[in-house]
Amino acid sequence: MAMDTMAVELPDLSTHEPRPIAEETAEEKYERLLRRARSEDLSEISGIGCLYQSGVDRLGRPVVVFIGKWFPIGDIDLDKAMLYLIKLLEPIVRGDYVIAYFHTLASSANHPPFSWLKEVYTVLPYKYKKNLKAFYIVHPTFWTKMMTWWFTTFMAPAIKAKVHSLPGVEYLYSVMARDQLEVPAFVTEYDMTINGLHYFQPDTSST
């Protein structure tokens, strides 16, 4: 006697495709980087001494100093450099702050790639841009002027009006007292070379 053939219905595999992994949001990425910044060893970057807080300006706002010459692009891990930037700035950017970037005697070996600058600007939350009240570039060159114009025009128009190029350290003393600004000796030595000894006058505005 012939047995009836039983039809076996196979599941429709097309309806069980793996769900695509949700793309990480900007906020999630920053929080992940912040956790790494707080837990990883960043002494390789902190030991260079190129980024630090140096006192406050005349309005009581923290001053963050960046020394371009001490930022050797070819010898450091840029991923860790970003983590150190986040670790240093996170407690500072909760309120108003200013940045003083010294391009003194910097060369192409100290110029960060544009792709890295773009990534940093994209990763950092809105509070970093909102609470930044001034970005001073001391001893600018043609490269810094062109890069600043391009970056603030096409990538970061929100901070364009906050960027100021200054020919010497002395110009900073109108917004911060001398004893609040700590910079390497080569910066002031270069300043005197290009501006003359008479350029440095006693700071009487803080008395």
Automatic annotation (TrEMBL):
One Pfam short name: CRAL_TRIO_2
Gene3D superfamilies listed in its UniProt record: CRAL-TRIO lipid binding domain (3.40.525.10)
Domain CRAL-TRIO: 38-195
PROSITE patterns reported in the protein's UniProt record: CRAL_TRIO
InterPro entries to which the protein is assigned, alphabetical: CRAL-TRIO_dom, CRAL-TRIO_dom_sf
Classification via CDD domains: SEC14 (cd00170)
Protein name (Swiss-Prot/TrEMBL): Protein GDAP2-like
Organism field: Papilio xuthus (Asian swallowtail butterfly)
